[in-house]
């Protein structure tokens, strides 16, 4: 009988808080478990570093890398990134707690073969958007692959996981160990050959992921990792149209740009790659977007043959699909003759065709198809920038947006950046400043309640609001009594608006009446403008009829004209309370609360008179449940 090995951590309570329920996955640095957070009553993913990594000479390096994951990922707030909650140690165990994402990963979706081009673009859009957020903070993922793209159960929403190999760019650009981290099928050529990793390595990995989503296979396959790594360094990624007949030239160009072997020819980061992805998506017909991968038409025999050459055939007018053709082979020159024979004419014609095809390739796909975005187009007028781009052989287009620093009419940025190579037939996008965006200050801010003032300011685009509060007699509590802007002023939308809000009148100090007779305490509090409420309670130490404490307490601040409750001793439990001077109804309530039965005698109740005395008299001991007689007039 086979022996079943049970993970010893299942069922363990980590750090007195996280109960490990099941193992989810195991990687090169750590094992991921599903666990229950007993403190917050939620499911989490618990990532535990392998114990052997914390031993030997490299222990400190691995521990630092593991802890760096928490610091890097915890700073990423993006809907497409698996959230990291906490990190800690429990004995010799080092762990991270992360968002638990029930469902599957992108690898399973690729194996199913049901991906449409539309769904592939949606997944890639989220992946690049998440990486763009990381790149903006100087963080490189280093291990983009289908297993690290999780798909939420039910919604199918992608989330990028495992920033465990991520490092700040400043740290990874000076690699000294010679160690290459990552999955070889998705590693950039420069990472394999030199160990260098920057944002463009993530872009390359996304390009390989795009190839796999579009075609259902990897571009470079071999018997082992060494052969695959060799292919990445020495061979271009073939066109995707060579493996699926419904994919056309825009997709070939997109994957070619993302997977260029020279990192300088790739988008500089995920944000630029995301723009390229979205531009490509706009060029694809709807009927092509919705073809499942399993139902994709096969490529032509010519296309398959042309995979090694990576040359894309120019599509016929009105056609979407395009298939690669091999480079034309130059023909030998005709032998000299006074009168060329028929075969010589054929060779001459073939040579002419070769020249024409070579010229077409040079201008459409070769070096002649590209130009360099000139320097000096940012910070000049839009007209000057467009003229410079046109002179460089590029097609300018422009969009406008408000900017508080760049003057109106000047270029804020250009995509792609200055100095980048770009296809002549694709537009270079200029972002032109509209100047500062202004908003009109709404009328009546002073006098509004704070929430209404905030809503009014946000309604016109002024969202940076700072509120301070102060005691004042100028307005009721929570009302705006001052604003840093005036009604009707035109101010920049990024300006901070400061509001002062009333906290009501200044508080009045409550006098200390502890130990006074209740009548004296009431007079003192009333003289300071307070309303007085009375609460009678048993007390073993304070004589009956004496104030035990007040709420608010003596020396504390209270709103002027507010109510102060005095707690009056009824003496020890079993002592008849003093109800003399009270109305009959109030006296009955106090005595019954003390546990006595009440009997009323006299005519005071008829004539509106209060209690004269009680029998037994106040202060006498009487067992609870006994009878107290109230005497009135």
What does this structure look like?
- InterPro entries: Kinase-like_dom_sf (IPR011009), PASTA_dom (IPR005543), Prot_kinase_dom (IPR000719), Ser/Thr_kinase_AS (IPR008271).
- Residues 363-434, 504-570, 571-633 form the PASTA domain.
- It catalyses: L-seryl-[protein] + ATP = O-phospho-L-seryl-[protein] + ADP + H(+); L-threonyl-[protein] + ATP = O-phospho-L-threonyl-[protein] + ADP + H(+).
- This is non-specific serine/threonine protein kinase.
- Its EC number is 2.7.11.1.
- The model is unreliable at 168-181 and 299-340 (pLDDT under 50).
- The strands form ten sheets. The chain has a six-stranded antiparallel beta sheet, with helices on one face.
- It is an alpha+beta fold and 633 residues long.
- The protein is built from 17 helices and 29 strands.
- Helix 3 runs antiparallel to helix 6 (199-215) and helix 8 (249-258) packs antiparallel against helix 9.
- It is 28% helix and 22% strand.
- The protein has five domains: 1-100, Phosphorylase Kinase, domain 1 (2-Layer Sandwich), CATH 3.30.200; 105-326, Transferase(Phosphotransferase) domain 1 (Transferase(Phosphotransferase), domain 1, Orthogonal Bundle); 370-433, Trypsin Inhibitor V, Chain A; 438-502, Trypsin Inhibitor V, Chain A, CATH 3.30.10.20; 518-631, Trypsin Inhibitor V, Chain A.
- A hairpin with a 3-residue loop joins strand 2 (18-26) and strand 3 (30-37).
């Amino acid at each position: 009988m086979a022996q079943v090995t049970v993970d010893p951590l299942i069922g363990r309570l980590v750090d007195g808080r996280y109960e490990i329920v099941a193992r989810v996955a195991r990687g090169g640095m750590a094992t991921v478990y599903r666990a229950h957070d007993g403190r917050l009553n939620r499911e989490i993913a618990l990532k535990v570093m392998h114990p052997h990594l914390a031993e030997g000479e490299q222990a400190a390096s691995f521990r630092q890398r593991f802890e760096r994951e928490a610091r890097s990922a915890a700073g990423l707030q993006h809907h497409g990134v698996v959230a990291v909650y906490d990190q800690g140690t429990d004995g010799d165990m080092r762990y991270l707690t992360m968002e638990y994402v029930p469902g599957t990963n992108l690898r399973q979706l690729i194996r199913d073969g049901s991906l449409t081009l539309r769904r592939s673009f949606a997944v890639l859009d989220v992946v690049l958007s998440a990486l763009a957020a990381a790149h903006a903070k100087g963080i490189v993922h280093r291990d983009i692959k289908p297993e690290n793209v999780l798909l939420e159960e039910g919604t199918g929403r992608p989330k990028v996981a495992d920033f465990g190999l991520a490092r700040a760019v400043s740290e990874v650009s000076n690699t000294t160990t010679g160690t290459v981290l990552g999955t070889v099928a998705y590693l950039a050529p420069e990472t394999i050959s030199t160990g260098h990793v920057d944002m463009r390595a993530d872009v390359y990995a996304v390009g390989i992921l795009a190839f796999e989503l579009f075609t259902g296979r990897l571009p470079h396959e071999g018997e082992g990792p060494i052969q695959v790594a060799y292919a990445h360094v020495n061979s271009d990624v073939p066109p995707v149209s060579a493996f699926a007949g419904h994919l056309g030239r825009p997709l070939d160009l997109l994957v070619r740009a993302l997977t260029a072997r020279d990192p300088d020819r790739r988008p500089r980061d995920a944000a630029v790659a995301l723009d390229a992805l979205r531009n490509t998506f706009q060029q694809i017909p709807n009927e092509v977007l919705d073809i499942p991968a399993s139902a994709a038409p096969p490529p032509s025999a010519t296309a398959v043959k042309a995979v090694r050459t990576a040359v894309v055939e120019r599509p016929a007018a009105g056609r979407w699909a395009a298939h690669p053709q091999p480079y034309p082979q130059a023909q030998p020159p005709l032998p000299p003759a006074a009168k060329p024979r028929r075969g010589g004419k054929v060779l001459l014609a073939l040579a002419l065709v070769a020249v024409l095809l070579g010229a077409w390739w040079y201008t459409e796909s070769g070096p002649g198809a590209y130009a360099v975005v000139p320097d000096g187009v940012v910070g000049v007028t839009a007209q000057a920038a467009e003229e410079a781009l046109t002179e460089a052989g590029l097609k300018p287009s422009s969009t406008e947006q408000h900017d508080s620093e760049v003057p109106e009419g000047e270029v804020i940025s250009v995509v792609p950046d200055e100095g980048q190579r770009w296809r002549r037939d694709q537009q270079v996008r200029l972002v032109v400043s509209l100047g500062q965006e202004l908003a009109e200050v709404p009328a009546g801010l002073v006098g509004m309640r704070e929430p209404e003032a905030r809503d009014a300011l946000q309604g016109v685009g002024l969202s940076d609001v700072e509120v301070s509060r102060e005691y004042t007699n100028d307005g009721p509590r929570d009302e705006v009594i001052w604003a840093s802007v005036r009604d009707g002023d035109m101010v920049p939308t990024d300006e901070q608006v400061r509001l002062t809000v009333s906290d009501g009148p200044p508080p009045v100090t409550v006098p200390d009446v502890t130990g006074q007779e209740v009548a004296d305490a009431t007079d003192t509090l009333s003289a300071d403008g307070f309303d007085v409420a009375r609460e009678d309670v048993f007390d073993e130490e304070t004589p009956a009829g004496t104030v035990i404490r007040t709420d608010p307490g003596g020396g504390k601040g209270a709103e002027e004209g507010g109510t102060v409750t005095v707690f009056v001793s009824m003496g020890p439990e079993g002592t008849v309370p003093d109800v003399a001077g009270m109305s009959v109804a109030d006296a009955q309530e106090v005595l019954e609360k003390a546990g006595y039965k009440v009997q009323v005698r006299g005519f005071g109740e008829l004539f509106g008179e209060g209690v004269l005395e009680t029998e037994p008299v106040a202060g006498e001991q009487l067992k609870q449940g006994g009878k107290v007689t109230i005497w009135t007039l």
